[in-house]
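G., before I forget:
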Amino acid sequence: MEKNQTAHSNSHHGFPWSHVIGFILSLVLTVAALWIALSLNLSATSTMVLIIILAIFQVFVQLLMFMHLREQEGAFQITAISFGFFVAIAVVAGSIWIMEYGLY
Amino acid sequence: MSHAEAVDPNVPLEYSTEHGRLRIFGFWVFLGAEIVLFATLFTTYLIYLHHTAGGPTAKDLFDVKGFTIETFLLLTSSFTCGIATHELRRGNRGGLIVWLIITLLLGAGFVGMEINEFVDYVHQGATIQTSAFLSGFFILVGTHGCHVSLGILWMISVIIQVSKNGINSTTARKAFIVGIYWHFLDVVWVFIFTAVYLTGLVL
């Protein structure tokens, strides 16, 4: 997370801590989602909210720990990928809203 | 095939030419479009989740052990791919190749399990033509599986180029981009795991 924009400051020397931490976080998030969905017996709505939050955390782990999103053209890359997420949310949420509530 | 361009020694090799920087940025734009492609498939799946036309439902089909193993295979391959990029940054050709091979073996295990799962479903009478739910399921999960298979072929070709030409600004850029692609597939799988498998069991 503290990786700076010049890219080569810390990531290729010594032990790859950010990758190991990212891996452990991704395993913990996955096991937590499994546990919430399969053993916790919450209501469907709260289960869905919780596992979607865990999935979003998982995305940030991948983007920041593994994908070197903030390097070099970072600002432009974040713009491109954010626009993708914006369209994705509009498509998924908008379609479910219209289809589920019979507004068509 | 070297590009006659100034090489900046202060940045990692894959960013050291303007050409390489632009290609990496362009790949991020491509990933933005991939997000939109998968969003449309997720939408179709979620809208038709309960439209099973009398055929098998998500609860009938999904096997927790199977999709959990698939998930851990892909998460681990994302980690080993990150280590490959780390070795690339260290200029360690042998390390880069070994970790890329481990990554694609894990990926191949994932694809193998997915094919098994699909064959199993078809034997249970759950084909792509059975219901809207299953059409959405096979198209979404199958599109992701095709991406992983393509990633495996791509990674093999990068390994061949790295072992032939060593690590230079061109092969470094190619190895770096295939790594980003692989992590992106893991991101998409996290949503398939959540929105398809867990949601299918909960709702």
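The mean pLDDT of chain A is 85. Chain A touches chain B through 53 residues (CB under 8 Å).

More on Monday.
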